[in-house]
Amino acid sequence: MIKAVVFDVGETLISEARIWTRWAARLGVSEFVLMGALGGMAALDRPHLDAFELIRPGFDAGAEEAAWERDEPDGLRNHFDADDLYPDVRDALAAIRAAGYQVIIAGNQPARAYGALVAMDLPADSVHTSEGWGVSKPESGFFAKVAAVAGREPGEILYVGDRLDNDVLPAAAAGMRTALLRRGPWGYLHAERPQAQAADAIVDDLHALLPVLERLG
C-alpha cells in the first residue's frame, strides 16, 4: 500500500518557462531559439547545458551564473518563486495529504531552492534538495535518501516526476512505485517512449494522482 507520495520539482511542481525566457535574454537569443535547442537536447537525451553550448560555444555555466548575479543581484535570474508554481499544485498536494498520504518534495535542485520552496508554504511534510543531500538523481543514493526521510519501505512510496531517466526508471529500480507526468518537454517526449510503460501510471496533471493512489492501494 502506498503511504507516501514524493514529488520532483522542475516541470513537476515548478514551471521553468520564465527561467528559460530569462536565460534566452541573457544569451542574447530569442525564446524560440533557446526553447528549440532545449527540445532538441531532450529528444536526443543530451544534457540541457548542451543547448547553451550550441548557442554559445565555450559556455561556462558557473562563470555565467556568477556574472549574472553581479549584474542583477536582486533579480530572479535562474531562480524561481511562487509565481512559477503550476496551477494544480496547491490543491492537488492538499487533496493527497487530506487523503492520508505523506507528501514530500525532493528533486535535483541547488540548496537555495529549499528556501524558495519552503517560503511557498506548500501542503507538504518536508522539502529536500539534491545539493542539500549531496547526491543527485538518477543515483541510487538519492532514492535511498527519499526512503530514509519518508521513513517508509521503497514499495510504500510513489515517486512522481516528468522524466524517465531521472525519475521513473531509477525510482522503480529502487523498488518504488512511479508516476510519469506529461508536463514540460521531457514529460511529453518520454511519455511516448516504450520505456514509459515501466511507470505505474502516466498522468496529465497532479489531480489525476488520487485515482492512481486508490488503484495502487
TrEMBL record:
Gene Ontology MF terms in the entry: hydrolase activity
Keyword Transit peptide on entry: no
Superkingdom, taxonomy of origin: Bacteria
Keyword Hydrolase: yes
Database matches in InterPro entries: HAD-like_sf, HAD-SF_hydro_IA, HAD_sf, S-2-haloacid_dehalogenase
The name this protein goes by in its record: HAD superfamily hydrolase (TIGR01549 family)
Keywords annotated in UniProt: Hydrolase
